[in-house]
Amino acid sequence: SKARLFDEKNDIKVTFKDVAGLEGAKEEIQEIVEFLKNPEKYTSIGGKIPKGALLVGPPGTGKTLLAKAVAGEAKVPFFSLSGSDFVEMFVGVGASRVRDLFKQAKEKSPAIIFIDEIDAVGRARGKNNFSGSNDERENTLNQLLTEMDGFGTNTNVIVLAATNRADVLDKALMRAGRFDRQIYVDLPDIRERREIFEVHLKPLKKAEDLDTEFLAKQTPGFSGADIANVCNEAALVAARKDKKMVDKQDFLDAVDRIVGGLEKKNKIVSPEE
Ligand code: ATP
Asked: Per the database record, which ranges form the AAA+ ATPase domain (predicted)?
């Protein structure tokens, strides 16, 4: 059977209210929602809708969530693939996958294409030439640039891409008419952590002693993904102890576990550094 080329979702339920904090990023990306909802409003007076925007920020801060929320808010299909899927691909497959992806999205436009970990394909060309797959990576990147340049002004497909390494990206990607907008998605501050806790506490049976301000204070440096993880871990801790509700101590235990995990992870030196 043929491998899945990319994901296509036509009924995204995520909206901006699922994305806690990130007020600045939501405000900036709201414009893209408006374009997708009513492209003619902009093109009929001769405006050109942007083709792409880069979501830049540390892992787990909600870049994928935000991209999905754009599709959910605008009620358009969401096509996604991950740059890391291309890393071990046979010659020609990456480029043809990109071609198919754009073809499908155009057929269903207005639509969003989301490319996660774009740095895996979008690294500056001609560097780190130590692996055999490099030529294939360049072919894939070139195809992506070709597709974006080939968009007419009335294509109504917007490409969002996420990275935590904007510094390594090929400058050609950031040229006008490509990913010429950058939207920063940072780690949450204390107030934002509180809001993220509110979102992820919702499905839990909570004890009286739970207080989001306290939880936000206990979790400096945590990303949204870490907080979602803490909430689930706390529920598991409570259930293991046969509790009927999740309490403060379960959260403290969960935070300890996650902090332990983060410390281990940070000791692994990335081979790319
Ligand atoms: P990566 O760079 O690792 O791909 P990312 O920035 O794309 O990460 P997401 O995949 O969007 O991060 O986040 C993972 C999960 O963490 C989300 O599905 C959600 O449950 C939670 N999360 C992250 N940020 C937020 C946020 N701002 N509000 C609510 N939940 C969040």
From this structure: 49-189
Going along 87-238, which residue ranges are E strands?
111-116, 157-163, 181-184
How far apart are the C-alpha atoms of 84 and 69, rounded to whole Å? Answer: 22
pTM of the prediction? 0.89
Report yes or no for ipTM above 0.95: yes
Ligand 1: centre distance to CA 195 (Å): 13
- In one-letter notation, the amino acid at residue 132 is G
Q: Which amino acid does the sequence have at 272? A: E
126 is in an annotated binding site: no
- At 53-71, the pLDDT tens digits run 999 999 999 999 999 999 9
Contact between 29 and 73 (Cβ < 8 Å) = no
Q: Give, for ligand 1, the residue of 13, 26, 64, 212 to mutate: max count of ligand atoms closer than 8 Å to Cβ.
A: 64
Q: Give the Cα separation of 85 and 258 in Å (integer).
A: 27
